[in-house]
Protein 1
Amino acid sequence: MKTACIAGAGNTAFGRHEGRGPLDLMAEAAGRALDDAGLKRSQIDGVLCGYATTLPHLMLSTLFCERFSVQPAYAHSVQLGGATGGAMLMLARELVRAGRCTNVLVVAGENRLTGQARDSSIQTLAQVGDADFEVPNGASVPAYYALLASRYMFETGLTEPDLAEFAVLMRTNAARHPDAHLKETITRASVLASKPIAAPLKLLDCCPISDGAMALVVSAEPRRSPRVALAGAGQGHRHQHLTAIADTTNYGARDAAARAFAESGLGLADIDYLAIYDSFTITLAILLEEIGFAPRGGSADRVRKGDFLPGGPLPLNTHGGLLSFGHCGVAGGMGHAVEAYRQLAGRADDRQTGVRRRAFVHADGGVMSSHVSLILARED
Amino acid sequence: MPPPSLSAPFLEGLARGELRYQRCADCDAPQTLARYACRQCGGTRLVWRTAAGLGTVYAVTVVARAPSEEFRALAPYTLAIVELDEGPRLMGHAAPGVAIGDRVHAGYFTFGGHTLVRFAAGA
């Protein structure tokens, strides 16, 4: 089998892109990723793209390919909610390892903020709930995660001030990234005082809705040095709907992580950078604890100790995560992997956290429904 | 006309003031939501039964930011997941102030063209 590496990355700024559609944003990010990888359009032989709620086209991948003027030997789009980016990178890795493709462009983008009314966006997302049992109650994605949070906090002792630590950390990180959506300083007190959305979640426990795009090239022949390999990948899918969750100690993240670690031959102790999905503060806390980067109910203690700071032993989402870099759908979930790649490649500009060798990347879709773990390894 | 939903017996039950759920005819496991096969044994002989409407609060939230204009008229409202005594879990509205572990019973109200469950304290 060949080794699949990340050969380049590109992104637009996240925030408001008034008047620009998903394809406009995708083309900008993809163009930058190709430049970064040192590849010409003609060298791209695989294209995987996400979906865009503002452009529900039957064939988004080939629509994009036509406009972007690439003619790949393999193309389609992928739909797995917030885990789509992770799933596309996992598939791109398989295509390269098997020899099917040499250079796979993975791209997603959406004008989720300015392309539709806020209510429309919230209602579209709420459809990850059960259409007969859940959605008719006036539930929304924040309400699903709030219900999840209430049970998890009841069982583990995690508190609202604990969750606030993650919001502050992500905002502090975002302030160092020129392309982040939200950079205004927040404090634990302002998180706790922010307006209620669905108890125990308040506005600053929730990610914003943004416009933006991200792209990565997965390749058998990366030009840049050091190489950053996709060393392992795994998935876990135990339920779709919140109500159907049977086990609050394994939402599926642990399954995905165990599969990725087993494949890479690495373990938790080998990881020195974390890129973890953070649609809400509770999402981040649960994933860190379930995967094993913190004990049950103890993830906020690690934040307070400074372990997840850029200068700490396990820097976490140094771009600011969904909570502050922003969330525009599939591309939001790719942002973590893009930043992990840049940290391992030593090309994270002012945010570079010294030499990072092994990153653990995790994405979840739905209501902790679909999980994808990836392990990135720097090869000098 | 769209084909009837797999959940049609549940929805018909709600309209009559009943909580219906599926139970496996092979292994007797109660099912949460509607399924084609038993989550425990994979058997496909799932039979709809009627629950008594009593249960224990498993999770709870108060929704302040409603997803639509229609529900904004109701906000803030309490949503809960209740574990019914027969085994399945069900999302519904709930009386303000209910907490995890509280015993509750199901009542019903009509909103936005749907019959919805509203759990209240006491069982």
Note: The interface with chain A takes residues 5, 7, 10-11, 32-34, 39, 58-71, 74, 76-77, 79-81, 89-93, 100, 111-112, 114, 116 of chain B (CB under 8 Å).
Protein 2
Amino acid sequence: MGRYVARRLLQAVPLLLGITLATFLILKAVPGGPLAAYEADPSVTPEDLARLEHAFGLDRPIPEQYLEWLGRFLTGDWGYSLATHLPVLRMIGDRLPNTVYLMGTVYLVTLLIAVPIGVLTAVRQYSWFDHLVTGATFMAFSTPTFWLGLLLIIVFGLNLRLFPLGGMGTLGSAFDVGDRLRHLVLPVATLSLVGIGHYVRYLRASMLETIGQDYMRTARAKGLMARIVIGRHAFKNAAIPLVTVAALDLPELFVGALVTEQIFGWPGMGRLFWDAATRSDYPILMGILTVASTLVIFANLLADVVYGYLDPRIRYS
Amino acid sequence: MAGQATAIGIGPAPRTAQRSQWEMALERFRAHRPATAGLLVLGALALLCAAAPLVSPYDPESVKLSLIHEGPSLAHPFGTDSLGRDLATRILYGGRVSLSVGLLTVTVAISVGTLVGTIAGYYGRWPDSVLMRLVDMMYSFPRLFLLILFGVFFKGMTLGVIVVVLGLLSWMTTARLVRASFLSLKHREFVEAARCVGARDRRIIVRHILPNSLAPIIVAATLGVASAIIAESTLSFLGLGIQPPTPSWGNMLKDAPSEMNLAPWVAIFPGLFIFLAVVSINFIGDGLRDALDPRHVTRRG
């Protein structure tokens, strides 16, 4: 296992280099560029532009620029935002807790709701409950997230006035747990629904597969209570693929839900990316994209390792 | 080539076997009620959108300031928007855009994915490792973020650009599926047999292996249409996709956040149609999976 992890980590290195290089090239290739704001300004002369270009190192060959960026990135110097002139690392660090707070709650709510439903539909296969849930899950993951967000705002925010329309807390008021929680409800509901749909389906399928196994019949035949058969023998095995899915969803914790943050005015990573994209703030974009793809790669590795740990039948060569 | 095969005596037999296999699949699909319902709904929707000028008496783009934000009525079943345009009409015309984006994107994605998967799976060795590393890399890019970047830099995208960009970002699943089925099929007896009678690579790929890998490709394509429709609508909702006045289901919702306290129907109906189309397609995909992969059904039963 140790050797397997080491080899996977080694394989991740060229993959990461490839991704950062591709991201770098994409950001270089798109029209605009970091100097677009200065180019539009009539008081900036061509000589000024050339000086800026030289100061930013933009006149050097692209491979050299990339290596320079990489070197700085690895030593923790992620550059400065072109819009706010703050360090990229700090700007990401400021927003990250907000996104983790939102997405962590989403993660928790999704699992707490999806696991019991998924187990129950599999145990009661082809019952009215199963049919109802199957129909509902299809609807859940067919709903465009942004539209669900709008509907929830209309119903619970504008009409029933139960929850605030956006933000993380009431502006200007002191910290208040109840107020914080009320602000959390609608975005979390918006983001959880699709995930619940997916998780219920995975769990149902994998529970059904497990329930059909011989050892389940044995467990039942030796007179174990249904609760133990389902809980200890079936669920534990059926949950293994779910762990993989959950690990692969981890990067979502970081990148968050751009559209939902946009609708609910949530000051997280998604909004930061959006603002940076609309302002051509390249250092921020580069930082976020790099961290996001790194997380995807490590989530993949984590999924495989956890899978191998939980299921000793899996042996990596 | 076909003549040679018949001469040896292995020509017609597999053909009849294959046809009955598709017939069986069709039977299984018909038995899947949600899928047939999905097909009916989607078919009706596509027909209505295609016939939009015949169905609706209104123009989708001309502004009527006397009719701003009219609630749903007999004349305007879904109400009117902030420029007095009939929402139902715009939904029909928008459906043309959204459904075409779905179909065309998947066409791009499936073509690229099948090509990459075929080369990687059939030829193996270094083309395989290079292409699969590319797949890994493409998977690691956050898709929505890249789409937003392109959208921002091109100041909105035309239908053609969306199709190409979205397609080039969504071929990886197909590539993996096709590669996997090539790996499992390329050493089977019927492929060896074809090679023995002198079939070239191209013929083996096109006539012997690909037809046997169709099932997962069809299912992936169907589900891909649904996810492309959602991606396009999300992008257009953010103002980065299809640009107004041309309606798409996504860009019709663009102004909804600021208007929904005045005219909630503006926020409700276009999304309802995205939902209807996507749920129908997902049900069809589920039905196709059951129909094309009999093992899947027996495992469930």
Note: Chain B has 15 helices and no strands.
